[in-house]
Specification:
The protein has helices at 41-44, 111-120, 131-135, 141-152, 159-168, 193-196, 217-221, 326-335, 338-348, 379-388, 407-420, 432-440, 468-472, 489-500, 504-521, and strands at 19-25, 52-53, 69-70, 90-94, 174-178, 181-185, 229-235, 239-244, 262-268, 283-286, 298-299, 309-316, 354-356, 397-402, 425-430, 450-455, 524-526, 528-530, 533-534, 542-543, 547-548, 554-555, 561-562. With 566 residues, the protein is of the alpha+beta class. Helix 8 (326-335) runs antiparallel to helix 10 (379-388) and helix 14 (489-500) packs antiparallel against helix 15 (504-521).
Length: 566
Amino acid sequence: MTVAPYRPEPATARRRGGVLRVVAPTDAAPLDPSCAPASAAPFVRLHTRQLVTWQTARDVRDWQAVTPVPDLALEVPSTWNAGLGASHRSYVFHMRPGVRWDTPDRRPVTAHDVVRGFKRMCNPVRPSPSLAYFASTVRGLADFATAWAAEATHRAGDAATLAAYQNAHEIPGVFALDDETLVIELARPALDFVHMLALPAASAVPVEHDAFVPGSPEAAAHLRANGPYRVRRHRPGEWVELVRNPAWEPAADPYRRAEADRVELRLSDGAGRADAEPTDAPAEVPVAPAVGGLPAAEPVDGDGALGWALDPYLLLNLRDPVWADPRVRQAVALAVDKAAVADLYRRHRPGVPVRVAGSLIPPGNAGHDTADPYPTGDPARARELLASAGHADGTPLVLIHPHSGLGPEVAHACASDLTRAGLPTRAVGLADAAYTEALRAPATAGGWQLAVAARVPDWLEHNGRVFAQAMLQATPVPGGANHGGYAAPEVDALIERALDAPEPWRADAAWRAAAERAVADVAVVPILHRAPVAAPRRPDRVDGITPLPPQGYAVDLTAARPGVDE
């Protein structure tokens, strides 16, 4: 692929220190890592560590930019270092010495803390959005999660009850031999397993977190850090302040830094509000919202880049009886004028390449295909399908969308297209937190039939599952992005075939077939594929801007240097 290297920074009279302010969506705050989404990884990276992580890259053509590197682990297990068994199902990790928790005794981080993290991602109150990846891969983890969820229906959801169950039960495939040695056994070999271990869900978790319900404000207020920063103060949904962690040793962390004295996250609810306490005009780095990208972002590469996004797409809530007849769903796919949405993006995001999408999996991701079963913008054909289905106008459909990014513009354009085609539709905007909750629990967050959504890959190599499995698999384990409740045995079988495939090309073929079937079923309506974008290389008064390609080309905030005069 052809990607221009990132330019070296000119010499400046600036030193380490200062305050770095980051503007971010509310759901991207440095939350309890056990239930933080993959999109929060650039923030979780400030205060947590995982067995493996990513390194920054000034030249994203470098293969090392998308390959996991050891973090809490001394090495990435392989057959060469005897950490990976011949069956490719048993991984042995040796813990890095010198990594400590921000506790009064500065206790070492052990293999037992990683086991606790795997258990806590399965909690039934706020399970990790990445849980489905691990449940289909790690031996016994799915049974552990489903049994805990079943037990929770009969028990209180307080911290003590959750901790009691967690500590009395084990995941057969995740265990510590001693403080320094961890073993993870898989149910099947997985080409992408090491990539999964860099997600927030796989963070080590200290015993102190057992005192709090996962994802609660109390848990966020009492996080114990092992990364370069620790949370000092926060106001839920408004701001978070992090300061340097005195227990963090740079010599024991090869891939993070702590350039700023303090990091302030100003959280926007997507409706134009971003609150923070007054500061001394610190430097600021913006972060792209979920739908629509960032106006000042730079495209990484138009054609050859890894990690294009499905941004935006329409999600159908298939639990609603309005979608029972496939012809009504097909009418939705035919009604949306994708080319008009592409023009909207080009006007508001000039320079960021977009393409009209027909397939679920975008370019630069495993399993991509160019097939498009539904041509764009054919309202006449949509009306014919509705007539043949006997669909009568009734209460307008509700199309929810986030306030952030281009969510409102996309939603109103799609609502107009659907209304013209004979499906009266009302666009309803939600603040980011409410929107996320509506997707996670549609039955309890108000009725909706459609949603404007986006999907950015959680990693870049062997990543077909981040689209096809996350968005399509009907699984009893919570988590994933199948917010519409799609369930098709044939697609589930193709997903299992892809997960079992020993060669990448076989996996890609199965991912492609699963995605094609789901698009033909109109489980979702792909609208655009968007090229990956990176934040500006030199925001005003900030140096050290380098991207983390597998984390959506987000900025490594640990290396960002606010302007501090000598």
